[in-house]
Amino acid sequence: MEWNAVLYDNKHDFVAEYGKDLLEFIPKDKKQVILDLGCGTGTLTAKLTDFCNQIIGVDSSQTMIAKARENLKNIENIKFQVCNALDLPFEQEFDVVFSNAVFHWIANHDMLLKNIYYALKPTGLLICEFGANGNIAIIENAFAKACKDFGYDYQSKFHFPTVENFRNLLENHKFMINKIYDFDRPTVLKDGQQGLNHWIKQFFASELKAIPETIQAMIIRKTEDLTRKKLWNGKEWIADYRRLRVIANK
Ligand code: BEZ
């Protein structure tokens, strides 16, 4: 997926906003070294500097890393690096691997956990949160139906595991699980009536790209019609987010 870093910062900053809840799980040890895996434009990376001596933010998107560097150029103990989560060049370097709203973009969770395990120091901590099974099911089902009505096939590119599946994976990689649970996080989308439209344009951009603009607009309108009863409260669109949260030691 090609990321629009400006749109992401302006319209979808709730991603980092909610991620702040995760910070409470970080040990208060100023000497630690942290990896922010999938750091985006660096909003949470900046917050993580309060908890460490050194932090590296990595993201597979050049655009996101460029924006993160620009946003945080005055902070000394942060480094940013373009890097794929399935190809991390780190060996026993981090006390904490932190990741918010990233794992659901990655198909191979097995390889991902292998890389993270390798990157952590002995007894290092994985703190992560991402989409759980059922995340955005109402939006995706409606979008798939709307696409179908106009002759297009929607295949989800997301990976939202169950707690059981992810627990098994963690255990296979010898992580010691402190916490693993899922929960609903209804998420207000910005921009009132336009909220779902903007969300769809950002996150289904690669699917929409292949469709003529007039049809795109009809698909989005149909998706709104199909979800209005459940996701529109008269003032705002509320996306049906569900989170899976994990705290686990190497
Ligand atoms: C999420 O954070 O759950 C999410 C964001 C964009 C697309 C799909 C899921």
Explain what the structure shows.
By secondary structure, this protein is of the alpha/beta class. It has one domain: 3-Layer(aba) Sandwich (Rossmann fold). 38% of the residues lie in helices and 24% in strands. The chain contains 10 helices and 7 strands. It has helices spanning 5-11, 14-19, 43-48, 62-71, 109-119, 137-149, 163-172, 195-203, 205-208, 213-231, and strands at residues 33-37, 54-59, 78-82, 94-100, 120-131, 176-188, 238-249. The chain has a 7-stranded mixed β-sheet with strand order 3-2-1-4-5-7-6, with helices on both faces. The longest helix is centred in the last third of the chain and has 19 residues, at 213-231. It is globular, with a radius of gyration of 19 Å. It starts with a helix and ends with a strand. The relative contact order is 0.16. The mean pLDDT is 94. Residues 15, 101, 104, 131, 135-136, 158, 203, 241 line the site of benzoic acid (BEZ).
The chain-level mean pLDDT equals: 94
Q: What is the element string, with H for helices and E for strands? A: HHEHEHEEHEHHEHHHE
**Overall number of structural domains:** 1
Tally of helical runs: 10
> What fold name goes in the CATH topology slot?
Rossmann fold
Give a short account of the largest sheet.
7 strands, mixed
The CATH homologous superfamily corresponds to Vaccinia Virus protein VP39
Strand line-up in the sheet with most strands: 3-2-1-4-5-7-6
Distance between the termini: 31 Å
Computed over alpha carbons, the radius of gyration is: 19 Å
Strands, total number? 7
Q: How much helix is in the residues?
A: 25-40%
CATH class: Alpha Beta
Provide the list of bound ligands, each named once.
Answer: benzoic acid
| Classification by helices and strands | alpha/beta
The residue ranges in which pLDDT falls below 50 over 5 or more consecutive positions are: none
CATH architecture: 3-Layer(aba) Sandwich
Question: Given the C-alpha coordinates, what overall shape results?
Answer: globular
Strand content: 15-25%
